[in-house]
């Protein structure tokens, strides 16, 4: 053998021996002939394996399939047996059972009842991405915890899907009853938080110029529909979607107001704050770039274009309240609601900077000192004593150290005040002085009430004008009468200014008494002077009577 030519050397056989058959080379060619394509001929499909080989493969597949089915049945049967045994052995609520967010797995009915009573107490109200957690009881809802716990225990046993209760998550609907009256009451309160007011088209300030802004639709709670949803709810999720109605704004296009706004925004917003008790004023001023951002539009039937400029309520209210808190002491404040209305009316009329707001005075507390009486305290505070008695439940006497309530100093200012006019009466000097725009225009001799029927100090107003009033108590006719204050609470009896009175058909009284106390509580002026005052002093002018 040539190692470099590893071919087998075949020797001729001896006589009498058979020549061995040449072995078929492994893998040299298939065990059956393949069709060789001839030039121009279509390739032929290879012959199929013998039929007995195909039958063996089919039999093997059938055996495997039957085996798989039998195995599946056995496994399922074992699982069902295990589940049955587990359910028989497990005495508590199944692991996947919940009531809302309250998990009850493993608890018996009594334990589940206690947990539900303690933990299932809240309903989440939803409106889109907004939510509010509200106690179920406040909405009139009452949970039957025991019945709910029993329902949870039966889940997977006598009702529901046992597999899901064992290995998944099952929500059980709580048993809840709803008191619709309580629900409606609570929803009316909740509406204040839930409702979104519509925003009218308005104007805003951009680069120093007013431009029109788009309207925004509001949302309002439909209480009746929400109560019905509450009644119909199964409370499974613990959520309640509120029934909301859209509220359209009243002004959809504010383009026509832009020019008006630009004219107003050339000036600051100046506000006068007038204290009618003291006669003093303070002034607040807002730059256009500040108050211009508060502008909007409102429907106005009196306007030729059907709308008018208005202030956004919230920023105006916040500004007034903050200013009042920083400026006034504890005895004074600002009627913010009334002030907002005054400013809105002024803006609608096109004259917001001509606005005068009035300081509001508050009740005070007085500690009684030695030697004081109700009458002396009332005189010092400038409040008729019957009003102090009324403010203290009919108090008839006081003692040292006792605290009593003194009514507000502006209790008698019933009408809108006239800030540029003021009448000052001095009891001690028996003079009446009349001021306009801070300047004294008249100074007259006066007569006020006698000691038994005094003219009482205080801050009052011109309430009425009567050409010739009649006082039945004294049978007096009083010319050019101007009512000033009512000394008796709840009575129509009024003290005021008048000229020389007459009695008995023509007898003229007190003609030579000016400068002395002669009246029964009224303020006497000469006929000439009282006529001037009658024409000058409109109702609402402040009358300050000093002791």
Describe this structure in words.
By secondary structure, the chain is an alpha+beta fold. Among the domains are: 255-361, Ubiquitin-like (UB roll) (Roll); 364-406, LysM domain (Membrane-bound Lytic Murein Transglycosylase D, Chain A), CATH 3.10.350.10; 421-546, Beta Barrel (L,D-transpeptidase catalytic domain-like). Helices cover 28% and strands 26% of the residues. The protein contains 13 helices and 31 strands. The strands form eleven sheets. Strands 23-22-21-31-24 form a five-stranded mixed beta sheet, with no helix packed on it. A four-stranded mixed beta sheet has the order 14-13-18-17. A hairpin with a 7-residue loop joins strand 15 (295-299) and strand 16. Helix 2 (109-119) packs across helix 3 (145-154) and helix 9 crosses helix 10 (336-348). The radius of gyration is 50 Å and the shape is elongated. The model is unreliable at 1-35 (pLDDT under 50).
What keyword list fits this structure?
31 strands; Membrane-bound Lytic Murein Transglycosylase D, Chain A; single chain; about 550 residues; Ubiquitin-like (UB roll); 5-stranded mixed β-sheet; 4-stranded mixed β-sheet; 13 helices; alpha+beta; disordered N terminus; L,D-transpeptidase catalytic domain-like
